[in-house]
Each structure stands twice: as C-alpha cells, then as structure tokens.
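Practice set, problem 2.
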Amino acid sequence: MMSGSNSGRPALVLVAHGTRSPRGVELVAALAEEVAASVGPTRVAFVDVLGPSPSEVLRELDAPAVVIPAFLASGYHVHTDVPREVADSGNADVHVTPALGPDPVLAAVLLHRLREAGWQSGDAVVLAAAGSSDPRALTDVRRAAAMLAELTGDRVEIGYVATGEPRVPDVVARVRDESGRRVFVASYLLAHGLFHSRLADAGADGVAEPLGVHAELVRLLVSRYRAGVEAVRVTAGAGAAPRHRRRVLPVR
C-alpha cells in the first residue's frame, strides 16, 4: 500500500508486527492513511504473519526512506528483525527511528481509551502488554505503566497476554481481591488481533480498545518521521553514507 503524493521527500515505511485479524490489518492501514495526509508517501510493512516485509518494501522504493517501527516496546523485532530487514533490502539510504513506545503521548491515548471503556478515577488499572523475553522490552513496559500511573494518579499493575508472567487474568483477580475496586484493562496494543481478543476473558469490569487510530498517535508518528527527514538532510549534506548503514535516531 502506498499513500500520499509528496514524492520529493523520503517515503515513510511503517513497520508493524502483523496479524491475521482483518480488523487489525485495516486499522494499521487506516493509521498509515492518516499519517500520509501530513507527510506524503507512506508504506506499511510487517515483520511477521503477513507481508510485505520491510526488505521487500525498501527494495521496491529504491529511494531514501524513514522506517518507523510501530512497536510499543523495543524487543526482538526492533533490535533484530528490523535491522536485518533493512540490511537485506540493499537500500543504502534508510533511517530507522526508535520504536513508538514507551512515550507520554501513548500514555495519554491509553487514558483516553480507558475513559471510553467506562473507567473513572478510583478504579484500578491493569496494563495489558504482549510480553517479551527481551529484558529491554520489559523495562519499556514498566516505563509505560509508570507514565500511565502519573496520569491516573494511582498505581498501574502489569499483566502479559502472550509471553511472560504474570498473566492478565491473574493480575485482574489479584487487584480486585486486594483492593475491592472495579478493575479496568488498558490494552497496550496497537491494533485488534489475537492478543486483544484474549482480554475479553480477563475478568475485568472493562477492557479498553487498543491504541488504534488516534489523533495524538498520528501526530507522534508525524513527529518521528520529520525527525528522520532532518537526519536524511544532515547526512546528505555531509556526503553519501556507506551502503547498508542503519542510522538510529534519538527519541524526540
């Protein structure tokens, strides 16, 4: 998929995990469309489940690109899959931004989704993350929970949906037993899919929607892209870069 028409600027390649859920795929496509309205040519690639892969998209472009890993924590996909895909593409002019999360913007979107689900001040919150075996990703999830806790004014517990312990249903049950309060699940997932569907059986009083297409998330993506474009310009001014070089930009 390609959207936008500002061909004079580097293309944006939004890299997501991938899902068999048609609703999830449509959501990622809709997010790309919203971003494209501000930045121009935007492509979507997936590292798992379905294609096209990042390397396929970057080979097709054969032009400067800014790659944004649309992951909420920096685990295996961010540290291993994305760099490998960039190298395999043979595209010499690719700038890779940090992963989307954790970020205060995402915490604000999580709070909005919780309120949509019926959460009120005083209700307990469990942050539901996919999970990872990478300690760096788990650290990112803890940071995300701390950011959300600053906004709710209360502790936010963490539960995992796919990898790691404790599992979301166990955390929900423990928090309810200990506090006697209503418990809501904040879905720390980008889109609908298998992981989000599991949250319906978590036993919570309410489950928030995934981050999805939200104006603040779109603005965050646009900001990351523009930081990447500035890096492209700086590199171009300094001369050509070696082939297969991957540049990781600082978090803005």
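Problem 2, part (b): a different protein.
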Amino acid sequence: MIKPDPFKGFHSSPEIIRLAVMLYVRFPLSLRNVEDLLHERGIEISHETVRFWWNRFGPMFAAEIRKRRIGSMKSSRWRWHLDEIFVKINGERHYLWRAVDHEGEVLESFVTKTRDKKAALKFLRKAMQKHGRPEIIVTDKLRSYGAALRDLGMVDRQEMGRWENNRAENSHLPFRRRERAMLRFRRMRSLQKFAAVHASVSNHFNQERSLSSRAIFKANRAAALAEWRGFGVA
C-alpha cells in the first residue's frame, strides 16, 4: 500500500517545512525568530505559518522518531530517573513529569494538575505500558513516588540520594530554555503536545558530545540530520 504524501497541497517544499519545524522545536527560538532566520535564507513565510507547520508536522515527525528508536528501547528498562517540574498555564501551576533513562534519553513526558499519588501512578503506568518495567527507579524524596511504587509492587526498586537524580534534573534544562522563548503555555493540551514532540526531537539530535571524539560527534550529527531530512517521505 502506497503511503499518502503528508506534504501534498502545501506550496512550500518538504525541505523547508522540515527545516522550520526543526528550528522551532529544537532550538530556543520564537516563531518570529524562525521567520527571520528563514527570511535571511530567501524563504518568505509568516510566523503563523511556522506555528501551523509545527502543529501539523511536529507530532508526525516525533512519531517517526519513536518508531525508528523502538528497537533500542531494551536498554531503557535498566535504570530510570523520574522527576517533575512545575509549569504555569495562565497563572495556574501544573506539573510536567518526565522519565529519563541512564543515557539521558527522555522516555515519557506527562502533564498533570497535581503531583499526588494518583498523578504519579498514572504517569508510571503510562511509561511502563510503552517501555516495560525498569530494574531501578531513581527519584527524589517526593512521597508520591513511594506510594505509587508501593501500589505497583516495585517499592524495592526505588533509589533516592542527594545527587542520584541529576540525570533527570539536567534533562529539564533544554525544555526550560524552550519554555522561556515561547513565553509560557496557555493550555494544558498544548503543553502536553509540545513536551512530547520536544522530547523526541531532543532524543534524536542528542549526541552526548562530551563522550565522543570530534570526528565521531560530527559523523553522528550528520547521520541524525540526514535521517531528519527523510521524515515524511512516502
């Protein structure tokens, strides 16, 4: 069966659409920043077009990334780092829960209005439904984690420590930079959507720069970019 062309009916080329989506999601740029950068390259589009493109194609590209990486998810069941950060939506505090594996890859992003046992349990079940049960779960001292893990029969797998969860806390930094550029979020649904897309794109381009030589880093970066340019191809 021939896969339908997702770019059919658009005046701009798929290459320009992919570039605009990558710039907006991957880097801490506003919609107008992306418009200006494309203008410098002779591409005339409005910031509202960039908004439409990322809403339309961002989830599709993220789904392709997750599908291509699913074969390497076996190692992600070894050690998970869990953490939550607060995000304000129209002045109201919400919580973004994130599960990160031992290599810093974001496995799951989940938004709730509370951070009690019920929210933690829902987050853990969603993550384990996709990735299976991890052998070790590293958390901070939030009691909701212990209560949720007790219900799941996994309290013996929990680890806590002063610096044990730095992997999860550091993974929040790219999202925080992105949040400031977007001038925060206005709806819980849009936060959930963007967090999921941003996590997948960050995973795709994360090359662990400090752990490899310059030559290997350049080769991996070129491979990730080449793979990105193939997303959405029928």
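Answer key, part (b): Strands lie at 79-89, 92-101, 106-112, 136-139, 158-160. The mean pLDDT is 89.
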